[in-house]
Amino acid sequence: MSARPVFDELIHAPNRLQVCAMLAPVDALEFGAVRDSLGVSDSVLSKHVRVLTEAGYVSVAKVPHASRTRTWLTLTDAGRTALDGHLAELRRIAGMAGGVADRPT
Amino acid sequence: MESSGSPTPDDALALLRDVDTARESLAGRVGSPWWYRLGAALSTASMFVGMGLVVGRPAAGSDAESASTLLVVLGACVAPAVLMYCLHRATGVAVDRYVHGMLPWYLQVFGLLALGFVLQAFLDVPLALVAAGAVAFVVTYDRERRIDARLRAQVVAGT
């Protein structure tokens, strides 16, 4: 069943959209893996993660490892619903430009 | 692009392309490294070698009995758990690799185990379980390779 197109202002920021899109197909991603894939700094990603966490779209788990703590990010059900709706809306809008409404993303 | 309001079709296309790019980047990390595939195959093969020692009916408390127990426990319990932990640490990706079920692999590997056991224990074919273990090694390595390919495809598709 395809998601209902809903524009989500919070996810719309490109980095946040990409974070959610990467989290969707996996159980969890380590903070560093997301940072490296996006090519952004720790502080930039932290800011976006905080926004997503406060919205309830992403949950954060801190796992102690040796002398450091590793942070794992998970997309919540609310985040998944918002992502699916926003991607559906983007596909709908992009479809106006000509025949891309059936993109797989 | 911290814009507010609805994007233009061109903006939407650009964002969807960014999503594809991010997922392709993630797909590069989601597969297992060579050592995970090798470790999974070796742990499977170690169960066969351990069973092969059991078939030789080692004396209680002998080195052969200890080795057989060690190999079976290592291959069935310890190695898979350690490998999975190391995989998560190394890749930074937590995903259920075996969500699509392990029944075909179980059938193949335990079929081989039963065949090797019958050949070695009842028909006195020497090293039949070691040979079956070699086949199980290949089967397991190939299974992990296929799982990697499926996971990458799923990530790219966003499913």
From TrEMBL, chain A:
Domain Winged helix DNA-binding: 16-93
Record-annotated membrane-spanning stretches: none
Entry superkingdom: Bacteria
Pfam families recorded: HTH_34
The protein, known as: Transcriptional regulator
Species assigned in the record: Cellulomonas wangsupingiae
UniProtKB/TrEMBL annotation, chain B:
Transmembrane segments: 34-55, 67-87, 99-119
Keywords from the UniProt entry: Membrane, Transmembrane, Transmembrane helix
Keyword Transmembrane helix: yes
Domain of life according to the entry: Bacteria
Protein name in the entry: Integral membrane protein
Natural source organism: Cellulomonas wangsupingiae
Origin organism lineage: Bacteria, Bacillati, Actinomycetota, Actinomycetes, Micrococcales
